[in-house]
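One-letter codes give the sequence; the fold follows as tokens. Both lines appear below.
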Amino acid sequence: MTQKRPFFLLLAAFLFIPTFTFGLNNPGTTAMNFVNLSHSAKAESLGRAQTAVTGVRSFTLNSASVASQENAEVTAQLVSYVQDVSYKNLGVVYPTPWGVIAVDAGAIDYGSQTRTTFSDRAGDSGDTFTNSAYQGAVAIAKKYHDMNVGIGVRYTSETLDGNKMDAAGLN
């Protein structure tokens, strides 16, 4: 039995150590900040503690959070921000005999923005550009005794003035 322990510890370390990705082409820039938009008023009131709440609004960060869900849940969110920025999100959680399945999809449209450059700081040329992004996530979770276990896949894409960045993750 002691021979199996190192393999189990190595497997656990591989599965539970977070993976980080860094942009190599444009150091000092960030992308996909829209995924940080809050999905839940309750999580906001807890200091953005998304993993402290259960249900469809938390599974994109913690797949196991939906494991004890007994009823189906559907949520939709449409938020209009200033200057034509809009955010749309739809989430579904559905319990099945073999686990709870969760699906989430969201999109953000930053609207039309005036292009400014070093030589045209006021944007007098009238040239505009658009930015948009979307994300999707699927997870399955199950409760085993007193422990929730889940696995999920997430895909995110963002287009900034014609430059596109894609990312996929497993949680």
Remarks:
- The chain is about 10% helix and 45% strand.
- The two ends are 29 Å apart (CA to CA).
- The mean pLDDT is 77.
- The beta strands are 73-80, 86-96, 99-114, 128-144, 147-160, 163-170.
